[in-house]
Write a structure and sequence with these properties.
Strand order of the largest sheet of chain A: 1-3-2
Structural class of chain A: alpha+beta
Order of helices and strands of chain A: HHEHHEEEH
Distance between the termini of chain A: 66 Å
Strand content of chain A: 15-25%
Oligomer: homodimer
Chain lengths: 122, 122
Amino acid sequence: MTEGGGDELLRVLAALASPHRLRVLAALAGGRNYVSRLARDLGISRALLQVHLRKLEAAGLVTSDLEFSEDGKALKFYEVVPFELTLTPQVVRDAAGSLTGPDDHDPDIRDHGPDIGKDNLS
Amino acid sequence: MTEGGGDELLRVLAALASPHRLRVLAALAGGRNYVSRLARDLGISRALLQVHLRKLEAAGLVTSDLEFSEDGKALKFYEVVPFELTLTPQVVRDAAGSLTGPDDHDPDIRDHGPDIGKDNLS
DNA sequence: AGTACCTGCTAACGTTTCTTTGCATGTGCA
DNA sequence: TGCACATGCAAAGAAACGTTAGCAGGTACT
C-alpha cells in the first residue's frame, strides 16, 4: 500500500481542486497523450502543464510513461489511472483520524478570553 | 437546482482539500455543535474556525442554524449535510465541460517556440 | 548549420489563501 | 459593575500557490 491514510485523501482532493487539473484529467480521460501535444490541445503552456501533471501523478491519478516514437523522438505519455473515490461524511470522519496535519495541536485552548474590561455605553 | 455544473464540484473539492476543514467536518459528522464549543474541541481559534465553516457552508457541506439556549445565549449550530459524491474519470470528464474557469482560453498556442538560434559549444 | 520537434529545470514574480490579532456587540449572573 | 460566554467582522502579515520566462539538453530532417 502506498499509505492509505487521510493524507492520501487530502493529496487527491488537493490535486482535483483546480480548474486546470480538472481539465487536464478530463482531456486524458479521453485518451492518453504526450505533454507537448496535450499542452497545445488545452491551449496552455508546456511549463504550466508539467507542473499540474506532476501534481496529478503525485496524487496517483495519472501515470507517466516515457516512450520513443519510430523516428527517435522521446515522448512522455500520460494516462489516467482508473479511480473510483466515494466521499461521504463517514469517509471523511475515518480519514480525518489519520492526518499528519499542519499542527499537532495540544489540548489547550486559547482565543485570548472573551473580551474583558470594557463596558460599552454606561 | 443550485447550479449543478463543474464549478459546484470544484467548490466542494476546494472545500474538502484542507486538513482543518476535513477535521471540522469529521467533528461535525460526530454530531452537531456550536462554534465556540467546536473551536475548543478542535483546539483552534474561533476566528479561524468561522472562516473554514463559512467555506464548508458555501460548498453546501454543512448548514448553520442559529438557536437560543434556555438561558438566552445565542448559539450558532452547525451540522453536516449528508452527501455522497463519487469521483471517477468519467465524472471529471463531464464536469470539466462546464467550467467557468479562470481563463476562457482562446484556441491559440504560445510556448514561445522550441528554442531557436542558439548553438551550444561549437 | 539551421530549423523543427521533443524533454527537463529553476528563478522570479504576482496573486491568492491562511491565520492571527483586535475590536464591537449581545445575554446572564454574582 | 464586572466577569463569563456567546456572536460577528476587518486589517494585516505570513505562507503557499500559480504562472511565466528563459535556459538546458536531446533526435531528426534539409
